[in-house]
Every structure is written in C-alpha cells, then in structure tokens.
Amino acid sequence: MTKKAVIVFSGGQDSTTCLIHALPLYDEIHCITFDYGQRHRAEIEVAQQLSKKLGVKAHKILDISLLNELAISSLTRDNIPVPSTSNPGENLPSTFVPGRNILFLTLASIYAYQVQAHTVITGVCETDYSGYPDCRHEFVKALNNAIALGMEHKLHLETPLMWLNKAETWALADHHQKLDLIRDQTLTCYNGIKGPGCSNCAACNLREKGLNSYLENKLETMKNLKSKINLK
C-alpha cells in the first residue's frame, strides 16, 4: 500500500522543514499551498520553487481569497503594520489571521480524502509560537477528531514541530542536510523578504534567535531534538 501525505506548504521555514522531514518517510507527497490574498504573494512563488527543487511532483495552489474578505490582519491588509516582537499570552498579535488554520487544515483534509492520503502534515508549533490559538496541540487534536468524524475517513493531522523550539527546528533541517536551503531559500519574513528576511519583524527575530541558539549549542540542541522525535 502506497504511503501518502498531504503537506500544508507555505514555503516558509517550518513547512519546508516538515517537507524535508517527510520526504524519506512517505512514498507520495502532495503539497497544498493556499492563495488567500496574503500580504506578500511572493511566498506562493517560493513554495512552488521549493517543491519543485525538492522533487515534489504534486503541488496544488488553491484560491481561497474569500478568507481575505473576512479575516482582518496585518498579513491580509497593507495598512496594518506588522509587529517587531511577539508576546505570547498577551493580546493576539495583528499577524493573527482568524480561522486560517481551521480553513487550511479542513481543506487539506478534503484534498487528502480525494488523493487517498491518511496523513496531513502542518508546521504549527506550540513551543515558540506567536500567540496564535490555532497553533496549539489542543486545537489540532480537536479539529482532527471533528474532521475524521465528519468524513468517516481515518486521518491524522501530524505536527512534527509541535514541541520543538526554533533552535531544534533548525537542528532538524541540519539533520537532513538542508540547513543552507532553509536559511537561504525559504520565506518566513512578514515583510516578504526571502532568506534572512528584514531582521525587523517578529517572524525574522524568532527565526534569527533560533538559528543563533542552534549554531552556538549544536550538540546539545541536536540531543534535545532526538529526545523529542524519531529521526532516520
């Protein structure tokens, strides 16, 4: 039986790390990227480039621009500035797109049903997240249950980065010998700059802090990573 997975793929650090981690584990990978009228559409182009570079044969770009009409965020509106820092536990940051992961994971699951995949992979993370409620394990578990019930389809929403901090996510990329690719060719920046980014937004600051931490403590970070997830 062919082992298949669908990956919610934005071309950012987290989703690309999930992809390189999944490649040796599955016979068939399907990437799905959502065009929701995001502030920086360059991420769609980056996602296409990366999936092709990494040998993914099935990559679907899905237009869900209706989300842009409903969800007001600094990632969907040019007139709302992006923050330079994030403070989990305080008010939701302006970069939170309400309902985004609910919609993304639901649509990805419908796609998985059609291609007969039983795994949907997403790069959400509760450890170093930006205060987004839809990045929490509790949310993913609840949605997974609802989707499986609603479609009567044995489906697992997999979150390989859920309990990793950013340094450990860099370590995972390095384990797969793709640290340079993640560092130079992904787009995580809220201001739409590929690679190291703008160095001013919250996403860039978290990314850079994690990379510096990993480079300064490689052995310890890799040890911690291996204690959290199985590596091949």
Considering the chains and any ligands shown, give keywords for the structure:
9 helices, five-stranded parallel β-sheet, 232 residues, alpha/beta, single chain
Question: How would you concisely characterize the structure shown here?
Answer:
The protein has helices at residues 13-22, 42-53, 66-70, 100-115, 137-151, 166-175, 179-185, 202-216, 218-228; strands spanning 4-8, 28-35, 58-63, 119-121, 156-158. By secondary structure, the chain is an alpha/beta fold. The longest helix is centred in the middle third of the chain and has 16 residues, at 100-115.
Question: Could you characterize the architecture of this molecule?
Answer:
The structure is a single chain. With 232 residues, this protein is α/β, with parallel strands linked by helices. Helix content is 44%, strand content 11%. A five-stranded parallel sheet has the order 3-2-1-4-5, with helices on both faces. α6 crosses α9. The longest helix has 16 residues, at 100-115. The model has no long low-confidence stretch (mean pLDDT 89).
Report the strand count. Answer: 5
Q: Describe the largest sheet.
A: 5 strands, parallel
- The N- to C-terminal Cα distance equals 21 Å
What is the helix content? 40-55%
Report Rg: 17 Å
- Quaternary organisation: single chain
- The dominant shape is globular
Beta content:
5-15%
Main sheet: strand order:
3-2-1-4-5
Q: Helix-strand pattern, N to C?
A: EHEHEHHEHEHHHH
Low-pLDDT stretches are none
Number of helices: 9
Average per-residue pLDDT, rounded, comes to 89
Q: What structural class do you assign from the helix and strand content?
A: alpha/beta
